[in-house]
Amino acid sequence: MSKPLRFLCVVLLLLTGMNAFAQRSANGKKMKPYREPHRPQLHFSPKANWMNDPNGMVFFEDEYHLFYQYYPDSNVWGPMHWGHAVSKDLMHWQHLPIALYPDSLGYIFSGSAVVDWKNSSGFGKNGKPPLVAMFTYHNMAHEKAGRKDFQYQGIAYSNDNGRSWTKYSGNPVIPNKDKIQDFRDPKVIWDEASRQWVMVFAAFDHVKIWTSPDLKNWIHRSDFGKESGAHGGIWECPDLLPMKTEDGTEKWVLLVSINPGAPNGGSGTQYFVGDFDGVSFRPDPAFAADTPKGRGVWLDYGRDNYAGVTWSDLPAAQNRRVFMGWMSNWDYAQVVPTTVWRSAMTLPRTLSLHKTTKGYRVFSNPVEETRLLSKTFKRLKPQTIVKSIALPQAKGLMQLDLTFSDISIDADFGIALSNEKGERYVIGFDAAKGHYYSDRSKAGAHDFSEKFAQKIHIAPRLSQEGVLKMQLFIDAAAVEMFADGGSTVMTELFFPSSPFTKVELFLNKGVLKLSDGVVWPLESIWKK
Ligand code: FRU
């Protein structure tokens, strides 16, 4: 090939490559990145192409690291890498180069990262503790050859704040001796009481617990879950963490994602509350006592919060557990109507543990840093609601904090988002049935998957208070509802054909009082 021709080919290749990052609007103009239709403005999403689970979330030297399952060559799932971004405030993110690439041992599936403060692994350099990542290798060649042992655990380390990584020469650190087909998603913590590293990962229908003195040599200690919780699908992405209730009681929480088998279908995250003695996890006898066997207790009843785990190594002074999930569902994640990128993360959430009349429960609330997204607010007049009211100053991105009282037993009310095309998304509460609900069947595109909007999604109300609180975070293509102090949570996607411009407090039936209401317009986390 002649030199000019080669040059032309390179330019053409570059242009087509770049095109993958740009979407054109109806009039043919190139859209600015992060301004495309449906692009989340309050939530993390990759610049381009496919993302699923959050991985390796760790805090180190003033940075929150977020790694994620990433396929840089397409907007559907493919050979997995770990994408990487960092943030100073959990809200605004800086994209960094891909952290982990597939290698001869396989694709890089989900996992976690820790700061090895005492350099137990010996990977540290010049007195600086290394970051150590634990992940699952998925060996496609072995899978295709019909072998069952194609998933195993590997580690990698970084001496430069996660900017570059070296895979450990002794990988895999946990081979798959028992040939368990689903054998993945290691989450590691340092357990101060037993003074060892503790790793949980998922093995088809249960969680395996392994321990290590140095992150390299691991011993299998126990299994949990074959007989517990929901089993409508495969167990994935566990997380085991100690938490304290308001009265200081320490309990251990085990998060387990499951796909399918979530209460509203497809992917979801269940959890268990119990005790851990450095060897095994045992659920508290009172936990889920009134939940029918096999039903499970769920972190989020919406359709779109999956594979979430918590951050490692938050400074003790923060005194909090911060969780983030993948804001989608395997039922339709690969066909949702976005092209430049596919998928976003949930807002980071603070998890808290509470003793309730139903036993121990984990509540989720948006982290307080979400306050950084608003400069002003508008307080609504307390009023008795007898028919729907349009909310003032409410369009686009916003947070709504609504408190209702004097709720009639037949009341059916909530928030509706709509546009001039007549599309309408509804999230509300049905007092007669005692549950919250989300209806996206008329909220825009849904025929990309028959599973997306085939039914109304419901979430039982846990709180028995007379006063009901709904907090909503509304983004271009998603809503997150934290009801009653985070005891009932729903995360739901929608895809209106033009932005929702109207927000209304609707009342279908009954009466109630809006005793307090605050509307916070929110600003995009991405630069204009
Ligand atoms: C969960 C999951 C994990 C796996 C990863 C692969 O969504 O299936 O179990 O490690 O995604 O991308």
Description:
- With 528 residues, the protein is mainly beta.
- The protein has two domains: 362 residues, Glycosyl hydrolase domain, family 43 (Tachylectin-2, Chain A, 5 Propeller), CATH 2.115.10.20; 148 residues, Jelly Rolls (Sandwich), CATH 2.60.120.560.
- Strands 22, 23, 25, 30, 31, 32 and 34 form a seven-stranded antiparallel sheet that branches.
- It is globular.
- The two termini are 43 Å apart.
- The N terminus is likely disordered.
- Bound molecules: beta-D-fructofuranose.
- Beta-D-fructofuranose binds next to strand 1, strand 5, strand 9 and strand 13.
Helix-strand blueprint:
Blueprint: H1 3-19, E1 49-60, E2 63-71, E3 81-87, E4 93-100, E5 107-115, E6 131-138, H2 140-144, E7 151-158, E8 166-167, E9 184-191, E10 196-203, E11 206-212, E12 219-224, E13 234-244, E14 250-259, E15 268-276, E16 281-283, E17 306-310, E18 321-326, E19 341-342, E20 349-356, E21 359-366, E22 378-380, E23 383-385, E24 389-390, E25 398-405, E26 412-418, E27 424-430, E28 435-439, E29 457-460, E30 468-475, E31 478-483, E32 488-493, E33 502-509, E34 512-521
The protein binds beta-D-fructofuranose (FRU).
What is the annotated CATH architecture of the largest domain?
5 Propeller
The kinds of small molecule bound in this structure are: beta-D-fructofuranose
The coarse silhouette is globular
CATH class of the largest domain: Mainly Beta
Termini, distance in Å?
43 Å
